[in-house]
Amino acid sequence: MTELALKGAPVDRARLLRLLQDYGVYAGVAVLLLVNIALTPHFLSTENFRTQAVQVAPVLIVALGMALAIGSEGVDLSVGSVMALSTSLLSLYLGYGPWVALIVAMIGGAVVGLANGSLIAFIGVQPIVATLALMVAVRGIALVLLPQLKDVRDSGMSSLGSGDLLGIPYLVLIATALALVVGFIVKRTTFGRQLLAIGDSRPAAQLAGLPVRRVLILVYVIAGVLAAIAGVLATARLQASDPTSLGTLMELSAITAVVVGGTPLSGGRIRIGGTVAGAVLIQLLTATLIKHDLPPSWTQIAQAVVIVLAVYAARERGKR
Q1: Residue 26, pLDDT above cutoff 90
Q2: Any transmembrane segments, and where (predicted)?
Q3: Quick check: 92 pLDDT over 70?
Q4: Residue 256 near residue 102 (C-beta atoms within 8 A)
Q5: 297 pLDDT tier (thresholds 50, 70, 90)
Q6: Helix locations, 119-211, DSSP H
Q7: pLDDT in tens, 64-80
């Protein structure tokens, strides 16, 4: 009987780890919701849910681009700096109209993504090194363009940041639409299948004749554009451009959302639904700590613990 129990233990452990990776993020969201319902005053109010949804939107949008980069067996550490660059460009070009400023901000994100992708695809620089270099450089460029905080006074930006459609904030609608588009790209397009094949094995993808360089460049361009959109939305919500602080540590939140959502750091797989849940989990975790008067540093510690647990679960599953 003891021998059978010992033989059965590894199977149960493997199953537990598989369930943790596949559904742990949803369980985490459910637990945080229950904890807040029980312990946080006014948590179930409509205004609170609106606030949480609006705050999670930029994180989710950045995480979508990060999911593509991680799915290709890479990473993009420059996303926070791209948000800073987009807020600087938005402020500088807002006098030409909100649409012009938005397009310029997105072009700025695309250029950074193109630089990241070119370094990785053509020169062979490791993604973490290439994007780290751009993270430092782009933040510096953003501060050169706009050295200090500047108020954003534009009716279009104000409407974007605080307006809604049938009670649903524009920011939430945009984030939802982008999640659906990225999910469709990953699951239903040739580009998505090529991306996953490259993430699974780049040498094999090259031998199969896949356009590896083109796909990698597109991945980082998309990630850059999404980060720029997130920067514009955050600026519209805050009604201020602050390249010094906007997007700071956003790469940590995005990586956490992606990894906790079940996308492995080894590439070859992307879970958009899990990424959405991961972004919600990070926002709920942050809100819970803030509402109970814990310092912001605890949020970073909690995110680090969540990342370690998620990576451990993925590593153990990969061994089996």
Answers
A1: no
A2: 23-44, 56-72, 92-112, 119-146, 166-186, 215-234, 246-265, 272-290, 296-314
A3: yes
A4: no
A5: confident
A6: 127-145, 155-162, 170-188, 190-200, 202-207
A7: 999 999 999 999 999 99
Confidence class for position 145, pLDDT limits 50, 70, 90: very high
What b-and-e string marks burial along 30-56, b requiring 16 or more CB atoms within 10 Å of the CB?
eebeeebeeeeeebeeeebeeebbbeb
Contacting residues for 97 by C-beta, under 8 A, at least 6 apart: 156
pLDDT mean across residues, the chain: 87
Q: What are phi and psi of 151, to 5 degrees?
A: -65, 140
Tokens of 11: 């199977």
What's at 304, amino acid-wise? Answer: A
Two structure tokens written together for 272: 């958009």
Region of residue 253 (left: phi > 0; alpha: psi -120 to 50; beta: else) = alpha
The separation between CA 70 and the C-alpha centre of its own chain, rounded to angstroms, equals 10
Q: Is 164 helix (H, G, I), strand (E, B) or coil?
A: strand
